[in-house]
């Protein structure tokens, strides 16, 4: 009995301790809850808003009591190194930065061998005698002949004897071509106010004017053009570089296989080697999907992303063509307002020089121009854009192998003040392109006539192969 009472007493002591502990905890919690809900009247009342001095003092006291270690960050220059070079040692969260654009290397292009000057000299002397003898057979006396050898054509300058009618020489182009055993010769009289008559004769041995030889030269490397196009070499060996902003639009035409497409590629490659994506954007139209489709991989760098247009290079979809041209019209209006608001800048160059937010030039290239003239609306849009777009940095290069008065209208030619004519099949085609004859007497393979402000110059167009274009495009795309 005594044992039972002892056990019962022990159990009661444990239960009472547990009850006391639980009650103590409960009372403590209720007390804290009361302090939170009802402030202690003895405490000094706080104002609703803390003043600046109290706030600064509180912050200072807080950080003194809890010092924060300074994070270790590596020295990083976003101008010199791409974001991929940042290591995991960096503890600060850094927003993504675009990697630095790298201009393609000239090593991606090909060097082409040049013809021996010894062979050319022998050929020139032989042809001088043939020209002099042929004209002599018709009673036309020549006192002197000088020659300037080009890559594919040699220019012979004749000094007629006193009393010789110039038209007698100009009418003998067919006879001279037959005597020299060439397809055609082109006679210019008078020639550059020199008192001479010039005869352009195709060479038997021809050299390729590679795009690399033009781009690596000092003329291109040191040029200050806004949009430089290395289009070829003159007969006397000068590199021909034109500024698209001064043209301001270019019309290119020529029969199939005579160098038109290669010429377009040379223009694009010239710009890719001189301008960066933030300075230049392209809009490319290729209705036949043959020539410009190779540039579609540049859509992340150089091709404008037009809303509601899915194709990187626009093809023969009428809706996409219309959408793209309407977007260009809106962009032209927007830029015109920006130029006016910035102090009535007359050109994009002036605007970019005055403002921190630069606008890129936009080059619109259209291959087979007649194929996109699918409606009157499209034709009117093109005419309107070509009239007004130059001042805001939008420039057109349009090309066709079928020049006709129906497609190359007077409204088009009046705004496209620069023309490039490769060999055409008929004299009437030359008249449509250049408003002059001569393109029908070219020899093909890049041989061209460049016309600007009514001055016509014969050039050998720059050659760039499809493999070279692929090398450059793939490099930029990566």
Which class of the largest domain in CATH terms?
Alpha Beta
* SS elements, strand count: 13
Helix and strand composition category: alpha/beta
Shape: elongated
Largest sheet: 9 strands, mixed
CATH 2nd-level architecture of the largest domain: 3-Layer(aba) Sandwich
What does the radius of gyration come to?
A: 39 Å
Low-confidence sequence ranges: 41-50, 70-98
Widest sheet, order of strands: 6-5-13-12-11-7-10-9-8
Counted up, domains total: 2
General description of the model:
This protein is of the alpha/beta class. The chain folds into 2 domains: 117-202, Threonyl-tRNA Synthetase, Chain A, domain 2, CATH 3.30.980; 211-477, Rossmann fold (3-Layer(aba) Sandwich), CATH 3.40.50.300. It has 14 helices and 13 strands. It has helices at residues 2-37, 52-65, 117-137, 166-170, 173-180, 211-215, 218-221, 260-272, 318-341, 348-354, 376-388, 410-415, 427-434, 466-477; strands spanning 142-149, 153-160, 186-188, 197-202, 228-234, 239-243, 250-253, 280-285, 361-366, 394-400, 418-422, 447-452, 455-461. The chain has a 9-stranded mixed beta sheet. Residues 41-50 and 70-98 have low confidence and may be disordered.
